[in-house]
Write a structure and sequence with these properties.
Blueprint lengths: L4 E2 L6 E6 L44 E2 L10 E6 L1 H7 L1 H9 L4 H5 L4 E6 L3 H11 L13 H14 L20 H12 L3 H14 L13 H30 L6 H18 L13 H18 L2 E3 L5 E3 L32 H6 L14
Amino acid sequence: MEPTYTVDGNGDTLLILYDPNRPFEAVDDDDLWDNHLPLYDDFNVYKSRLLDDKREHHLREASVNHPPPKNPGKEVSWRVSLRKLKSASMTFQILAAENRKEDELFEQGYKYTIRAEGWSAQALHKLILRSHGEDAGLYELQSNPKLCAQLAVVVDEYQCHNLFQLRFPVVTGRYPYNENLLFWLFSSWVFRDEANFRESSKAIIIQTRGRMHTLGMPIPESLIIAIELKRKHYIAEMVNFAHGKVQKLLDCDPQFTHNQEAGEDLEESLGFTFHGWPPKEPFYGYGILNVYRALKEIIGQHDLKFDVRCDATGFSSKTDTSMTDCDETDSSSETDTSMSMIDRDPCTVTLENLRGAWSGLDINDFPTDI
């Protein structure tokens, strides 16, 4: 057969891609989270931002070395050098060992056949060009996060990480939670782009309201769990902070009824906004940014109304209960969220320094050779 692309005119291997360009997995309505604080959304994340064209087969079902389908339909093929493919990845050595010579193709000068199914033809073409020392046109990936993710999927499947060490400039600003953000997270992990991995993981951590979506990309479970743990951790810190303010007021000496009334009023406002107070882990339906905005608004309003709290002797003293002027602050992200704010001095933490401790993940904690 005549290949679609001849990358090596003397190549001994025919690589055939059946049913190319399967889409990323769609996100159904059932996969979208609840939103318990819609008034405090940072971005209007419409469902269409996480939806793609639905087809019977999804990218995650794409595979290598399948036998040719009974009704192959569209296919793309490359004439390549197995030696060069093998030098790019041990995986191709395994695939070559699994293949035997086919008489028809042997007569056309091919010794081996490698079959794949479902990948992006453009992404696979870039991988093949790169493995043969040709210009793969990688410059366009920076402005095409979907293609970058498609390439990352193929690179991860064939374990060709050494071929690609991509580093893109970090774009400052805010990133909405959508397909492009998920594409960047996966791509930066595969290509070991530490700065973009940190930024994209942070953006996902502070916007998700439950388990992150994968769109069918082979994102490691350890990475998904780490993002969810950080989401719950940061929300727990803020909930403990606000609950500590309530308890400080409620626990004042009964003679200071204005303090107890302040605590009851604050608790009632929190309960109304959060549909019950305090919310409990795993905080499904709550995002870090939503929680921060809600607490900042509610506590800010009550701080303006109630500027009295009990001191250590049980007597009241004028102070700024927003606690932004305390001498000691704790900006550590390692706060023990199991400890109630009742058990610590409320002046050791503020909403602002809790937010300042939000961070993304360290790429070195998530190797690709797993």
